[in-house]
């Protein structure tokens, strides 16, 4: 009877191809097959390094169906690698269902660490990194996005978001409304790539810079936002959260009055969304 193979979770570069580790290269070169989110993208990566391995498509639409077959292959003695289009698999990418199925079946799952855009951005942000919460992509629809941000406004941990080019300006506007224009943040764009930029300042300042420069609305974004402060800052954040909720049902002045009474935040700071 064959011993089960290993499922290797392999991080790939988020931009600069030199960030692919020697160990990742070695594993990708010897596994029986590579499970990839986009096989075309992964084939280009392998080709750059002179590798050629069988590729299997594994994405959010077929992961449940594929997991059982892939675990069977692992049980037969094959070793597989899982990669995403860029960075560490499972971080805002498919894969956890396969990993869970493999672990439940007694298959060894081994990480091959490497690049991760969220951690790369946090490492250069200069914002407290001892406690942080990764929120991935915010909802695409404005109403759901504003509701999510309202729930996060009082979060004391540093917050990390991913965002796309066509929503970055709109999302920054909603963040200003929910968290206040002065909340410190860092916007990291195109990390490790040719046009990498890392902007810092208050959320309002970042929104102004993105709105004024079309180049700052291109590429892939990681936003690192400082957590809510204690005492007065926390009361203000809670007041803004309540105001956002109440203003959907009451006139703005009434919503601000109630939110101020409930939170202890100054009413003037709440009227108009805390701007």
Structural class: alpha/beta
How would a crystallographer describe the biggest sheet? 5 strands, parallel
What sequence of helices (H) and strands (E) makes up the elements? EHEHEHEHEHEHEHEEHEHHH
**How many individual β-strands?**
10
What percent of the residues sit in helical stretches (DSSP H or I)? 40-55%
What distance lies between the first and last C-alpha atoms, to the nearest angstrom?
67 Å
Percent of sequence in beta strands: 15-25%
Number of helices: 11
Strand order of the largest sheet: 3-2-4-1-5
Mean pLDDT: 92
Computed over alpha carbons, the radius of gyration is 22 Å
Can you walk me through this structure?
It contains 11 helices and 10 strands. The protein has helices spanning 22-30, 39-48, 63-75, 96-104, 117-125, 142-152, 168-179, 203-212, 232-246, 252-263, 267-270; strands spanning 6-10, 33-36, 55-57, 80-83, 108-112, 132-137, 158-163, 184-189, 197-202, 221-225. Strand 2 (33-36), helix 2 (39-48) and strand 3 form a beta-alpha-beta unit. Helix 3 (63-75) runs parallel beside helix 4 (96-104). It is elongated.
Key features of this structure:
five-stranded mixed sheet; single chain; 11 helices; five-stranded parallel sheet; alpha/beta
Q: Could you write a compact summary of the structure shown?
A:
This protein has 275 residues and is an alpha/beta fold. The chain has helices at 22-30, 39-48, 63-75, 96-104, 117-125, 142-152, 168-179, 203-212, 232-246, 252-263, 267-270, and strands at residues 6-10, 33-36, 55-57, 80-83, 108-112, 132-137, 158-163, 184-189, 197-202, 221-225.
